[in-house]
């Protein structure tokens, strides 16, 4: 049996894949960055990953 080590970032507009070992966990969900985990407060957009425009 294999165990998944990567999953999609839980931010709904983010397309990044994140390693479960390095993910930022918020409310039990994995996020690729602190901005995503915080829900992009104060109008911040994007997670600073190349080519991702989440926000």
Description of the molecule:
This protein has 55 residues and is mostly beta strands. It is built from 1 helix and 4 strands. The strands form 2 sheets. Strands 1-2 form a two-stranded antiparallel ribbon. Strands 3-4 form a two-stranded antiparallel ribbon. Strand 3 and strand 4 form a beta hairpin.
Helix content: under 10%
Beta-strand residue fraction: 15-25%
**First CA to last CA: what distance?**
36 Å
- Across the major sheet, the strand order is 1-2
Radius of gyration over alpha carbons?
11 Å
Write down the overall mean pLDDT: 89
Please state the overall shape, judged from the principal axes of the Cα atoms.
Answer: globular
Order of helices and strands: EEEEH
- The total strand number stands at 4
Low-confidence stretches: none
* Major sheet details: 2 strands, antiparallel
- Which structural class should the secondary elements be placed in? mainly beta
- Number of helical segments with 4 or more residues: 1
Write the layout of secondary structure elements.
Layout (H helix, E strand, L loop, with lengths): L5 E3 L8 E3 L4 E3 L2 E3 L2 H4 L18
Antiparallel strand pairs: 1-2, 3-4
List keywords for this structure.
single chain, 55 residues, mainly beta, two-stranded antiparallel sheet, two-stranded antiparallel ribbon, 1 helix, 7% helix, Metallothionein, metal ion binding, metal-binding, Metalthion_dom_sf, Metalthion_fam14_prok
């Amino acid at each position: 049996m294999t165990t998944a080590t990567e999953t999609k970032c839980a931010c709904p507009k983010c397309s990044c894949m994140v390693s479960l070992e390095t993910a930022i966990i918020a409310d039990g969900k994995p996020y690729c960055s602190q901005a995503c985990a915080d829900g992009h407060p104060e109008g911040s957009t994007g997670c600073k990953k190349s080519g991702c425009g989440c926000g």
